[in-house]
Protein backbone atom coordinates (compact mmCIF):
# COMPACT_ATOMS: atom_id res chain seq x y z
CA UNK A 1 0.00 0.00 0.00
CA UNK A 2 1.53 3.34 -1.05
CA UNK A 3 1.09 6.26 1.32
CA UNK A 4 -1.30 9.03 0.36
CA UNK A 5 1.57 11.41 -0.33
CA UNK A 6 3.57 8.82 -2.22
CA UNK A 7 4.55 9.46 -5.81
CA UNK A 8 1.87 8.29 -8.27
CA UNK A 9 3.22 5.09 -9.69
CA UNK A 10 2.95 5.61 -13.42
CA UNK A 11 5.22 8.63 -13.36
CA UNK A 12 7.99 7.81 -10.87
CA UNK A 13 10.89 7.94 -13.36
CA UNK A 14 9.51 11.08 -15.01
CA UNK A 15 8.91 12.77 -11.66
CA UNK A 16 12.40 11.92 -10.42
CA UNK A 17 13.84 13.36 -13.64
CA UNK A 18 11.64 16.45 -13.43
CA UNK A 19 12.65 17.03 -9.81
CA UNK A 20 16.30 16.71 -10.82
CA UNK A 21 16.84 13.74 -8.47
CA UNK A 22 17.76 11.69 -11.55
CA UNK A 23 19.61 13.17 -14.51
CA UNK A 24 19.33 11.69 -18.00
CA UNK A 25 22.54 10.56 -19.67
CA UNK A 26 20.94 9.29 -22.86
CA UNK A 27 21.76 5.67 -21.95
CA UNK A 28 18.94 3.58 -20.48
CA UNK A 29 19.63 2.62 -16.88
CA UNK A 30 22.53 5.08 -16.48
CA UNK A 31 21.59 8.20 -14.51
CA UNK A 32 23.27 11.08 -12.78
CA UNK A 33 22.04 11.99 -9.31
CA UNK A 34 21.39 15.18 -7.38
CA UNK A 35 22.71 16.03 -3.92
CA UNK A 36 19.35 15.04 -2.40
CA UNK A 37 19.42 11.61 -4.06
CA UNK A 38 23.01 11.06 -2.95
CA UNK A 39 22.23 12.09 0.62
CA UNK A 40 19.43 9.52 0.86
CA UNK A 41 21.65 6.86 -0.74
CA UNK A 42 24.43 7.65 1.73
CA UNK A 43 21.85 7.31 4.52
CA UNK A 44 20.87 3.86 3.23
CA UNK A 45 24.53 2.88 3.06
CA UNK A 46 25.16 4.09 6.62
CA UNK A 47 22.05 2.23 7.80
CA UNK A 48 23.42 -0.96 6.18
CA UNK A 49 26.67 -0.33 8.04
CA UNK A 50 24.85 -0.17 11.36
CA UNK A 51 22.95 -3.37 10.53
CA UNK A 52 26.26 -5.18 10.10
CA UNK A 53 28.27 -3.42 12.81
CA UNK A 54 28.08 -6.33 15.28
CA UNK A 55 29.81 -8.68 12.82
CA UNK A 56 33.23 -7.00 13.06
CA UNK A 57 33.69 -7.08 9.30
CA UNK A 58 36.94 -6.07 7.62
CA UNK A 59 36.36 -3.16 5.23
CA UNK A 60 37.75 -3.54 1.71
CA UNK A 61 36.97 -1.33 -1.26
CA UNK A 62 37.58 -2.14 -4.92
CA UNK A 63 37.27 0.00 -8.06
CA UNK A 64 34.64 -0.68 -10.76
CA UNK A 65 37.17 -2.77 -12.75
CA UNK A 66 37.71 -6.47 -12.22
CA UNK A 67 40.62 -8.56 -13.49
CA UNK A 68 39.20 -10.31 -16.57
CA UNK A 69 40.71 -13.62 -15.49
CA UNK A 70 38.66 -13.46 -12.27
CA UNK A 71 35.44 -13.28 -14.27
CA UNK A 72 36.67 -16.10 -16.51
CA UNK A 73 37.65 -18.33 -13.59
CA UNK A 74 34.23 -17.64 -12.02
CA UNK A 75 32.71 -18.76 -15.37
CA UNK A 76 30.72 -15.54 -15.55
CA UNK A 77 30.49 -15.68 -19.35
CA UNK A 78 29.08 -19.20 -19.19
CA UNK A 79 26.29 -18.21 -16.80
CA UNK A 80 25.60 -14.50 -17.54
CA UNK A 81 27.16 -13.59 -20.91
CA UNK A 82 24.39 -11.09 -21.66
CA UNK A 83 25.16 -9.03 -18.54
CA UNK A 84 28.95 -8.80 -18.69
CA UNK A 85 30.88 -5.67 -19.64
CA UNK A 86 34.34 -6.01 -21.20
CA UNK A 87 36.68 -3.04 -21.43
CA UNK A 88 38.17 -2.53 -24.89
CA UNK A 89 40.79 0.05 -25.78
CA UNK A 90 42.85 1.30 -28.72
CA UNK A 91 46.35 -0.10 -28.98
CA UNK A 92 47.53 1.05 -32.41
CA UNK A 93 49.96 3.46 -34.01
CA UNK A 94 49.47 6.74 -35.87
CA UNK A 95 48.28 4.99 -39.04
CA UNK A 96 45.78 2.85 -37.12
CA UNK A 97 44.62 6.01 -35.38
CA UNK A 98 43.93 7.78 -38.66
CA UNK A 99 41.84 4.84 -39.87
CA UNK A 100 39.97 4.70 -36.50
CA UNK A 101 39.16 8.41 -36.46
CA UNK A 102 38.16 8.30 -40.13
CA UNK A 103 35.63 5.59 -39.38
CA UNK A 104 34.30 7.58 -36.41
CA UNK A 105 33.88 10.69 -38.56
CA UNK A 106 32.04 8.69 -41.21
CA UNK A 107 29.82 7.12 -38.54
CA UNK A 108 31.12 3.62 -39.34
CA UNK A 109 31.50 0.73 -36.89
CA UNK A 110 34.85 1.06 -35.08
CA UNK A 111 34.64 -2.14 -33.03
CA UNK A 112 37.49 -3.89 -34.82
CA UNK A 113 39.85 -0.95 -34.17
CA UNK A 114 39.66 -1.73 -30.46
CA UNK A 115 41.15 -4.64 -28.53
CA UNK A 116 40.18 -6.39 -25.32
CA UNK A 117 41.99 -5.15 -22.21
CA UNK A 118 42.73 -7.11 -19.05
CA UNK A 119 39.70 -5.61 -17.26
CA UNK A 120 35.98 -6.22 -17.19
CA UNK A 121 33.38 -4.25 -15.26
CA UNK A 122 32.66 -5.68 -11.81
CA UNK A 123 29.28 -7.46 -11.92
CA UNK A 124 28.94 -7.93 -8.14
CA UNK A 125 30.80 -6.20 -5.35
CA UNK A 126 32.00 -9.48 -3.82
CA UNK A 127 33.82 -10.80 -6.92
CA UNK A 128 37.25 -9.29 -6.12
CA UNK A 129 37.05 -10.53 -2.53
CA UNK A 130 37.55 -14.25 -3.22
CA UNK A 131 40.94 -14.00 -4.97
CA UNK A 132 42.08 -11.32 -2.49
CA UNK A 133 41.27 -13.55 0.49
CA UNK A 134 42.67 -16.66 -1.19
CA UNK A 135 46.00 -14.84 -1.61
CA UNK A 136 46.25 -14.60 2.20
CA UNK A 137 46.22 -18.37 2.71
CA UNK A 138 43.79 -20.34 4.90
CA UNK A 139 40.93 -18.43 6.54
CA UNK A 140 41.13 -17.66 10.27
CA UNK A 141 39.44 -20.14 12.63
CA UNK A 142 35.71 -19.43 12.66
CA UNK A 143 35.92 -17.70 9.30
CA UNK A 144 35.62 -13.98 8.65
CA UNK A 145 33.27 -11.31 7.37
CA UNK A 146 34.23 -8.80 4.67
CA UNK A 147 32.45 -5.49 4.02
CA UNK A 148 32.56 -4.17 0.45
CA UNK A 149 30.89 -1.38 -1.49
CA UNK A 150 31.38 -0.99 -5.19
CA UNK A 151 30.09 0.29 -8.48
CA UNK A 152 28.67 -2.67 -10.39
CA UNK A 153 27.69 -3.12 -14.03
CA UNK A 154 25.09 -5.28 -15.73
CA UNK A 155 24.26 -4.79 -19.37
CA UNK A 156 20.49 -4.78 -19.24
CA UNK A 157 19.35 -1.51 -20.82
CA UNK A 158 15.77 -0.83 -19.76
CA UNK A 159 13.35 2.02 -19.24
CA UNK A 160 12.29 0.52 -15.88
CA UNK A 161 13.15 3.04 -13.17
CA UNK A 162 14.92 0.52 -10.95
CA UNK A 163 16.68 -1.56 -13.64
CA UNK A 164 20.11 0.05 -13.81
CA UNK A 165 23.19 -0.80 -15.82
CA UNK A 166 25.46 0.98 -13.33
CA UNK A 167 24.69 0.87 -9.62
CA UNK A 168 26.26 0.72 -6.17
CA UNK A 169 26.14 -2.51 -4.19
CA UNK A 170 27.02 -2.80 -0.49
CA UNK A 171 27.81 -6.36 0.51
CA UNK A 172 28.79 -8.40 3.54
CA UNK A 173 30.46 -11.71 2.73
CA UNK A 174 31.03 -14.55 5.16
CA UNK A 175 33.84 -17.00 4.39
CA UNK A 176 34.27 -20.00 6.66
CA UNK A 177 32.40 -23.19 7.54
CA UNK A 178 29.18 -24.43 5.98
CA UNK A 179 27.00 -24.10 9.07
CA UNK A 180 28.07 -20.56 9.86
CA UNK A 181 27.65 -19.54 6.23
CA UNK A 182 24.02 -20.67 6.28
CA UNK A 183 23.46 -19.07 9.71
CA UNK A 184 24.97 -15.79 8.42
CA UNK A 185 22.60 -15.77 5.47
CA UNK A 186 19.60 -16.54 7.70
CA UNK A 187 20.61 -13.90 10.30
CA UNK A 188 20.61 -11.26 7.59
CA UNK A 189 17.14 -12.30 6.43
CA UNK A 190 15.96 -11.72 10.02
CA UNK A 191 17.76 -8.37 10.15
CA UNK A 192 15.98 -7.24 6.99
CA UNK A 193 12.68 -7.12 8.90
CA UNK A 194 14.19 -4.30 10.97
CA UNK A 195 15.12 -2.41 7.81
CA UNK A 196 11.53 -2.55 6.54
CA UNK A 197 10.29 -1.32 9.93
CA UNK A 198 12.86 1.47 10.40
CA UNK A 199 12.56 2.76 6.84
CA UNK A 200 8.78 2.30 6.78
CA UNK A 201 8.92 0.25 3.59
CA UNK A 202 6.58 -2.52 2.50
CA UNK A 203 8.34 -5.67 1.33
CA UNK A 204 8.77 -9.38 1.75
CA UNK A 205 11.29 -12.16 1.39
CA UNK A 206 11.00 -14.25 -1.75
CA UNK A 207 12.79 -17.25 -3.23
CA UNK A 208 14.76 -16.07 -6.25
CA UNK A 209 17.28 -17.16 -8.84
CA UNK A 210 20.12 -15.50 -10.70
CA UNK A 211 19.44 -14.42 -14.32
CA UNK A 212 21.21 -17.40 -15.91
CA UNK A 213 21.40 -17.28 -19.71
CA UNK A 214 19.67 -19.49 -22.25
CA UNK A 215 18.45 -23.08 -22.28
CA UNK A 216 21.00 -24.45 -19.83
CA UNK A 217 20.47 -21.40 -17.64
CA UNK A 218 16.81 -22.24 -17.10
CA UNK A 219 17.86 -25.54 -15.52
CA UNK A 220 20.44 -23.82 -13.31
CA UNK A 221 17.76 -21.38 -12.16
CA UNK A 222 15.36 -24.21 -11.33
CA UNK A 223 18.03 -25.95 -9.26
CA UNK A 224 18.81 -22.72 -7.40
CA UNK A 225 15.14 -22.19 -6.60
CA UNK A 226 14.65 -25.81 -5.48
CA UNK A 227 17.46 -25.46 -2.94
CA UNK A 228 16.46 -21.91 -1.92
CA UNK A 229 20.06 -20.78 -2.33
CA UNK A 230 19.05 -17.25 -3.30
CA UNK A 231 16.50 -15.19 -1.39
CA UNK A 232 15.57 -11.58 -2.06
CA UNK A 233 13.92 -8.77 -0.15
CA UNK A 234 11.47 -7.42 -2.72
CA UNK A 235 9.95 -3.98 -2.25
CA UNK A 236 7.26 -2.45 -4.49
CA UNK A 237 8.59 0.49 -6.50
CA UNK A 238 6.68 2.80 -8.80
CA UNK A 239 3.06 3.28 -9.79
CA UNK A 240 2.48 -0.36 -10.61
CA UNK A 241 4.17 -1.35 -7.32
CA UNK A 242 6.52 -3.65 -9.23
CA UNK A 243 8.22 -5.96 -6.71
CA UNK A 244 11.92 -5.06 -6.93
CA UNK A 245 14.81 -6.92 -5.33
CA UNK A 246 16.50 -4.40 -3.01
CA UNK A 247 18.52 -6.91 -0.99
CA UNK A 248 19.67 -10.44 -1.77
CA UNK A 249 20.80 -13.24 0.53
CA UNK A 250 22.96 -15.86 -1.12
CA UNK A 251 24.38 -19.22 -0.17
CA UNK A 252 27.23 -20.06 -2.52
CA UNK A 253 27.98 -23.43 -0.81
CA UNK A 254 31.58 -24.13 -1.89
CA UNK A 255 31.16 -22.64 -5.40
CA UNK A 256 33.55 -19.69 -5.03
CA UNK A 257 35.73 -21.33 -2.41
CA UNK A 258 36.44 -24.30 -4.69
CA UNK A 259 37.29 -22.06 -7.63
CA UNK A 260 39.67 -19.97 -5.51
CA UNK A 261 41.07 -22.71 -3.24
CA UNK A 262 39.72 -20.91 -0.19
CA UNK A 263 40.33 -23.22 2.74
CA UNK A 264 39.38 -23.11 6.39
CA UNK A 265 41.95 -23.15 9.18
CA UNK A 266 41.70 -26.99 9.23
CA UNK A 267 42.50 -27.24 5.54
CA UNK A 268 39.02 -28.20 4.34
CA UNK A 269 37.32 -26.21 1.60
CA UNK A 270 35.36 -23.20 2.85
CA UNK A 271 31.75 -22.24 2.21
CA UNK A 272 30.74 -18.66 1.49
CA UNK A 273 27.57 -16.60 1.72
CA UNK A 274 26.78 -12.97 1.05
CA UNK A 275 24.13 -10.34 1.61
CA UNK A 276 23.85 -7.47 -0.83
CA UNK A 277 22.11 -4.09 -0.71
CA UNK A 278 21.11 -2.44 -3.99
CA UNK A 279 21.64 1.13 -2.81
CA UNK A 280 20.01 2.93 -5.74
CA UNK A 281 17.02 0.59 -5.51
CA UNK A 282 16.58 1.18 -1.76
CA UNK A 283 16.80 4.90 -2.44
CA UNK A 284 14.22 4.66 -5.22
CA UNK A 285 11.97 2.59 -2.94
CA UNK A 286 12.11 5.37 -0.35
CA UNK A 287 11.22 8.09 -2.88
CA UNK A 288 8.45 5.89 -4.28
CA UNK A 289 6.98 5.21 -0.86
CA UNK A 290 7.50 8.52 0.93
CA UNK A 291 7.42 11.10 -1.85
CA UNK A 292 10.12 13.28 -3.39
CA UNK A 293 10.40 15.89 -0.61
CA UNK A 294 12.83 14.42 1.92
CA UNK A 295 12.16 17.23 4.39
CA UNK A 296 8.53 16.03 4.58
CA UNK A 297 9.47 12.44 5.42
CA UNK A 298 8.51 11.19 8.90
CA UNK A 299 11.03 12.22 11.59
CA UNK A 300 11.66 8.59 12.57
CA UNK A 301 12.58 7.69 9.02
CA UNK A 302 14.85 10.67 8.63
CA UNK A 303 16.48 9.76 11.92
CA UNK A 304 17.09 6.17 10.81
CA UNK A 305 18.79 7.53 7.70
CA UNK A 306 20.74 10.20 9.58
CA UNK A 307 19.02 12.95 7.53
CA UNK B 1 62.47 16.75 1.29
CA UNK B 2 60.90 13.61 2.75
CA UNK B 3 60.46 13.49 6.52
CA UNK B 4 62.68 11.20 8.53
CA UNK B 5 59.79 8.84 9.23
CA UNK B 6 58.60 8.88 5.62
CA UNK B 7 58.44 5.67 3.64
CA UNK B 8 61.73 4.89 1.88
CA UNK B 9 61.12 5.83 -1.69
CA UNK B 10 62.15 2.72 -3.59
CA UNK B 11 59.62 0.54 -1.84
CA UNK B 12 56.44 2.62 -1.55
CA UNK B 13 54.22 0.35 -3.67
CA UNK B 14 55.60 -2.80 -2.03
CA UNK B 15 55.21 -1.35 1.47
CA UNK B 16 51.65 -0.23 0.78
CA UNK B 17 50.84 -3.73 -0.50
CA UNK B 18 52.59 -5.37 2.46
CA UNK B 19 50.71 -3.15 4.92
CA UNK B 20 47.43 -4.08 3.20
CA UNK B 21 46.70 -0.44 2.32
CA UNK B 22 46.74 -1.48 -1.35
CA UNK B 23 45.46 -4.86 -2.52
CA UNK B 24 46.71 -6.47 -5.72
CA UNK B 25 44.11 -7.32 -8.37
CA UNK B 26 46.53 -8.72 -10.93
CA UNK B 27 45.91 -5.75 -13.24
CA UNK B 28 48.53 -2.98 -13.24
CA UNK B 29 47.13 0.28 -11.87
CA UNK B 30 43.97 -1.35 -10.46
CA UNK B 31 44.09 -1.82 -6.69
CA UNK B 32 41.75 -2.60 -3.86
CA UNK B 33 42.04 -0.47 -0.72
CA UNK B 34 41.87 -1.04 3.01
CA UNK B 35 39.71 0.85 5.50
CA UNK B 36 42.71 3.00 6.49
CA UNK B 37 43.40 4.00 2.87
CA UNK B 38 39.73 4.80 2.31
CA UNK B 39 39.55 6.88 5.49
CA UNK B 40 42.47 9.04 4.37
CA UNK B 41 41.00 9.34 0.87
CA UNK B 42 37.64 10.38 2.35
CA UNK B 43 39.53 12.96 4.43
CA UNK B 44 41.14 14.37 1.27
CA UNK B 45 37.74 14.49 -0.40
CA UNK B 46 36.18 16.28 2.57
CA UNK B 47 39.12 18.72 2.64
CA UNK B 48 38.51 19.45 -1.07
CA UNK B 49 34.87 20.09 -0.22
CA UNK B 50 35.83 22.65 2.41
CA UNK B 51 38.21 24.34 -0.06
CA UNK B 52 35.29 24.84 -2.45
CA UNK B 53 32.54 25.51 0.09
CA UNK B 54 32.47 29.27 -0.50
CA UNK B 55 31.60 28.81 -4.18
CA UNK B 56 28.08 27.49 -3.56
CA UNK B 57 28.51 24.70 -6.08
CA UNK B 58 25.64 22.44 -7.12
CA UNK B 59 26.44 18.81 -6.29
CA UNK B 60 25.96 16.28 -9.11
CA UNK B 61 27.16 12.69 -9.11
CA UNK B 62 27.50 10.41 -12.14
CA UNK B 63 28.30 6.69 -12.43
CA UNK B 64 31.54 5.41 -14.02
CA UNK B 65 29.79 5.03 -17.39
CA UNK B 66 29.53 7.81 -19.96
CA UNK B 67 27.24 7.89 -22.98
CA UNK B 68 29.51 6.90 -25.88
CA UNK B 69 28.14 9.72 -28.04
CA UNK B 70 29.36 12.23 -25.43
CA UNK B 71 32.93 10.95 -25.78
CA UNK B 72 32.55 11.00 -29.58
CA UNK B 73 31.17 14.54 -29.63
CA UNK B 74 34.04 15.63 -27.37
CA UNK B 75 36.39 14.01 -29.95
CA UNK B 76 38.02 11.98 -27.20
CA UNK B 77 39.15 9.26 -29.60
CA UNK B 78 40.84 11.84 -31.81
CA UNK B 79 42.89 13.26 -28.93
CA UNK B 80 43.32 10.36 -26.47
CA UNK B 81 42.50 7.07 -28.25
CA UNK B 82 45.10 5.18 -26.21
CA UNK B 83 43.39 6.09 -22.90
CA UNK B 84 39.75 5.42 -23.70
CA UNK B 85 37.77 2.45 -22.40
CA UNK B 86 34.83 1.14 -24.41
CA UNK B 87 32.30 -1.22 -22.90
CA UNK B 88 31.61 -4.30 -25.01
CA UNK B 89 29.00 -6.94 -24.23
CA UNK B 90 27.56 -10.18 -25.61
CA UNK B 91 24.39 -9.83 -27.63
CA UNK B 92 23.92 -13.28 -29.17
CA UNK B 93 21.66 -16.31 -28.93
CA UNK B 94 22.22 -19.80 -27.53
CA UNK B 95 24.30 -20.89 -30.53
CA UNK B 96 26.50 -17.79 -30.37
CA UNK B 97 26.89 -18.43 -26.65
CA UNK B 98 28.14 -21.98 -27.22
CA UNK B 99 30.73 -20.71 -29.68
CA UNK B 100 31.77 -17.92 -27.26
CA UNK B 101 32.15 -20.23 -24.27
CA UNK B 102 33.97 -22.80 -26.39
CA UNK B 103 36.54 -20.19 -27.39
CA UNK B 104 36.93 -19.13 -23.75
CA UNK B 105 37.52 -22.72 -22.64
CA UNK B 106 40.12 -23.22 -25.38
CA UNK B 107 41.81 -19.95 -24.38
CA UNK B 108 41.10 -18.39 -27.79
CA UNK B 109 40.48 -14.72 -28.50
CA UNK B 110 36.78 -13.93 -27.90
CA UNK B 111 36.85 -10.28 -28.96
CA UNK B 112 34.69 -10.76 -32.03
CA UNK B 113 31.96 -12.46 -29.98
CA UNK B 114 31.36 -9.14 -28.21
CA UNK B 115 29.79 -5.97 -29.54
CA UNK B 116 30.15 -2.31 -28.62
CA UNK B 117 27.55 -1.00 -26.18
CA UNK B 118 26.31 2.58 -25.85
CA UNK B 119 28.67 3.26 -22.92
CA UNK B 120 32.33 4.10 -22.46
CA UNK B 121 34.17 4.53 -19.18
CA UNK B 122 34.23 8.12 -17.93
CA UNK B 123 37.71 9.56 -18.56
CA UNK B 124 37.23 12.74 -16.49
CA UNK B 125 34.59 13.49 -13.87
CA UNK B 126 33.43 16.65 -15.66
CA UNK B 127 32.53 15.00 -18.98
CA UNK B 128 28.87 14.23 -18.15
CA UNK B 129 28.36 17.76 -16.79
CA UNK B 130 28.44 19.63 -20.12
CA UNK B 131 25.53 17.80 -21.81
CA UNK B 132 23.57 17.77 -18.52
CA UNK B 133 23.91 21.54 -18.15
CA UNK B 134 23.26 22.18 -21.84
CA UNK B 135 19.94 20.31 -21.52
CA UNK B 136 18.79 22.96 -19.02
CA UNK B 137 19.10 25.82 -21.50
CA UNK B 138 21.16 29.02 -21.07
CA UNK B 139 23.32 29.30 -17.95
CA UNK B 140 22.21 31.57 -15.11
CA UNK B 141 23.55 35.14 -15.11
CA UNK B 142 27.09 35.10 -13.71
CA UNK B 143 27.48 31.42 -14.53
CA UNK B 144 27.50 28.53 -12.09
CA UNK B 145 29.81 26.07 -10.34
CA UNK B 146 29.23 22.31 -10.38
CA UNK B 147 30.75 19.85 -7.88
CA UNK B 148 31.33 16.30 -9.15
CA UNK B 149 33.10 13.20 -7.89
CA UNK B 150 33.44 10.13 -10.02
CA UNK B 151 35.33 6.96 -10.81
CA UNK B 152 37.44 7.62 -13.89
CA UNK B 153 39.28 5.31 -16.26
CA UNK B 154 42.41 5.73 -18.32
CA UNK B 155 44.02 2.79 -20.05
CA UNK B 156 47.62 3.29 -19.08
CA UNK B 157 48.75 0.07 -17.36
CA UNK B 158 51.89 0.81 -15.36
CA UNK B 159 53.81 -0.44 -12.34
CA UNK B 160 54.22 3.18 -11.13
CA UNK B 161 52.49 3.47 -7.75
CA UNK B 162 50.53 6.59 -8.68
CA UNK B 163 49.67 5.76 -12.31
CA UNK B 164 46.23 4.21 -12.01
CA UNK B 165 43.80 2.94 -14.61
CA UNK B 166 40.84 3.38 -12.24
CA UNK B 167 40.73 6.31 -9.84
CA UNK B 168 38.44 8.83 -8.17
CA UNK B 169 38.45 12.43 -9.31
CA UNK B 170 36.77 15.29 -7.44
CA UNK B 171 36.14 18.30 -9.65
CA UNK B 172 34.71 21.78 -9.52
CA UNK B 173 33.63 23.17 -12.88
CA UNK B 174 32.81 26.79 -13.62
CA UNK B 175 30.54 27.52 -16.58
CA UNK B 176 29.93 31.14 -17.51
CA UNK B 177 31.86 34.07 -18.90
CA UNK B 178 35.47 34.07 -20.06
CA UNK B 179 36.83 36.38 -17.40
CA UNK B 180 35.22 34.55 -14.51
CA UNK B 181 36.37 31.20 -15.91
CA UNK B 182 39.97 32.39 -15.88
CA UNK B 183 39.57 33.94 -12.42
CA UNK B 184 38.05 30.68 -11.12
CA UNK B 185 41.04 28.72 -12.37
CA UNK B 186 43.49 31.22 -10.88
CA UNK B 187 41.64 31.32 -7.53
CA UNK B 188 41.98 27.55 -7.23
CA UNK B 189 45.72 27.75 -7.93
CA UNK B 190 45.96 30.18 -5.01
CA UNK B 191 43.84 27.88 -2.84
CA UNK B 192 46.18 24.97 -3.54
CA UNK B 193 48.92 26.67 -1.49
CA UNK B 194 46.67 26.20 1.55
CA UNK B 195 46.31 22.49 0.78
CA UNK B 196 50.08 22.02 0.71
CA UNK B 197 50.37 23.89 4.01
CA UNK B 198 47.49 22.14 5.82
CA UNK B 199 48.45 18.65 4.62
CA UNK B 200 52.17 19.32 5.12
CA UNK B 201 53.00 18.26 1.57
CA UNK B 202 55.81 19.53 -0.64
CA UNK B 203 54.71 20.52 -4.12
CA UNK B 204 54.59 23.23 -6.74
CA UNK B 205 52.53 24.51 -9.61
CA UNK B 206 53.77 23.57 -13.07
CA UNK B 207 52.69 24.24 -16.64
CA UNK B 208 51.35 20.99 -18.11
CA UNK B 209 49.64 19.49 -21.11
CA UNK B 210 47.16 16.71 -21.70
CA UNK B 211 48.53 13.36 -22.98
CA UNK B 212 47.50 13.94 -26.60
CA UNK B 213 48.19 11.01 -28.95
CA UNK B 214 50.68 10.74 -31.75
CA UNK B 215 52.24 13.22 -34.17
CA UNK B 216 49.35 15.67 -34.27
CA UNK B 217 49.03 15.36 -30.49
CA UNK B 218 52.53 16.70 -29.95
CA UNK B 219 51.49 19.94 -31.68
CA UNK B 220 48.31 20.19 -29.60
CA UNK B 221 50.37 19.73 -26.45
CA UNK B 222 52.81 22.48 -27.50
CA UNK B 223 49.94 24.88 -28.12
CA UNK B 224 48.41 24.06 -24.72
CA UNK B 225 51.73 24.72 -22.99
CA UNK B 226 52.31 27.95 -24.90
CA UNK B 227 48.98 29.32 -23.70
CA UNK B 228 49.33 27.88 -20.16
CA UNK B 229 45.81 26.44 -20.42
CA UNK B 230 46.65 23.52 -18.14
CA UNK B 231 48.47 23.88 -14.81
CA UNK B 232 49.14 21.11 -12.33
CA UNK B 233 49.98 20.85 -8.65
CA UNK B 234 52.81 18.31 -8.68
CA UNK B 235 53.82 16.57 -5.46
CA UNK B 236 56.76 14.17 -5.10
CA UNK B 237 55.62 10.60 -4.45
CA UNK B 238 57.76 7.58 -3.70
CA UNK B 239 61.45 6.92 -3.14
CA UNK B 240 62.57 8.74 -6.24
CA UNK B 241 60.27 11.66 -5.34
CA UNK B 242 58.70 11.48 -8.78
CA UNK B 243 56.71 14.71 -9.34
CA UNK B 244 53.11 13.57 -9.64
CA UNK B 245 50.12 15.67 -10.69
CA UNK B 246 47.69 15.58 -7.75
CA UNK B 247 45.54 18.53 -8.85
CA UNK B 248 44.97 20.12 -12.24
CA UNK B 249 43.65 23.57 -13.15
CA UNK B 250 42.22 23.81 -16.63
CA UNK B 251 40.98 26.58 -18.88
CA UNK B 252 38.85 25.08 -21.64
CA UNK B 253 38.12 28.46 -23.25
CA UNK B 254 34.94 27.75 -25.30
CA UNK B 255 36.01 24.19 -26.27
CA UNK B 256 33.30 22.26 -24.39
CA UNK B 257 30.75 25.07 -24.49
CA UNK B 258 30.91 25.24 -28.30
CA UNK B 259 30.54 21.48 -28.63
CA UNK B 260 27.52 21.44 -26.29
CA UNK B 261 25.93 24.79 -27.26
CA UNK B 262 26.33 26.03 -23.71
CA UNK B 263 25.31 29.66 -23.75
CA UNK B 264 25.36 32.41 -21.18
CA UNK B 265 22.25 34.26 -20.09
CA UNK B 266 22.89 36.85 -22.84
CA UNK B 267 23.00 34.15 -25.52
CA UNK B 268 26.74 34.26 -26.19
CA UNK B 269 28.80 31.10 -26.01
CA UNK B 270 30.10 30.27 -22.53
CA UNK B 271 33.62 29.55 -21.36
CA UNK B 272 34.39 26.76 -18.91
CA UNK B 273 37.19 25.92 -16.48
CA UNK B 274 37.72 23.13 -14.00
CA UNK B 275 39.88 22.11 -11.09
CA UNK B 276 40.39 18.42 -10.39
CA UNK B 277 41.71 16.49 -7.40
CA UNK B 278 43.25 13.06 -7.98
CA UNK B 279 42.08 11.55 -4.70
CA UNK B 280 44.15 8.35 -4.81
CA UNK B 281 47.24 10.39 -5.72
CA UNK B 282 46.72 12.85 -2.85
CA UNK B 283 46.28 9.88 -0.53
CA UNK B 284 49.45 8.23 -1.85
CA UNK B 285 51.31 11.53 -1.45
CA UNK B 286 50.28 11.62 2.21
CA UNK B 287 51.43 8.05 2.87
CA UNK B 288 54.67 8.72 0.98
CA UNK B 289 55.36 11.88 2.96
CA UNK B 290 54.10 11.01 6.43
CA UNK B 291 54.54 7.24 6.65
CA UNK B 292 52.06 4.38 6.69
CA UNK B 293 50.85 4.72 10.31
CA UNK B 294 48.08 7.32 10.21
CA UNK B 295 47.87 7.40 14.02
CA UNK B 296 51.46 8.69 14.08
CA UNK B 297 50.76 11.59 11.70
CA UNK B 298 51.00 15.11 13.16
CA UNK B 299 47.85 16.19 15.01
CA UNK B 300 47.39 19.23 12.77
CA UNK B 301 47.42 17.06 9.67
CA UNK B 302 44.98 14.58 11.15
CA UNK B 303 42.75 17.48 12.13
CA UNK B 304 42.81 18.91 8.61
CA UNK B 305 41.72 15.52 7.28
CA UNK B 306 39.12 14.97 10.01
CA UNK B 307 40.97 11.84 11.19
TrEMBL record, chains A, B:
<keyword id="KW-0436">Ligase</keyword>
<dbReference type="GO" id="GO:0004812">
    <property type="term" value="F:aminoacyl-tRNA ligase activity"/>
</dbReference>
<dbReference type="InterPro" id="IPR045864">
    <property type="entry name" value="aa-tRNA-synth_II/BPL/LPL"/>
</dbReference>
<keyword id="KW-0030">Aminoacyl-tRNA synthetase</keyword>
<protein>
    <submittedName>
        <fullName>Seryl-tRNA synthetase</fullName>
    </submittedName>
</protein>
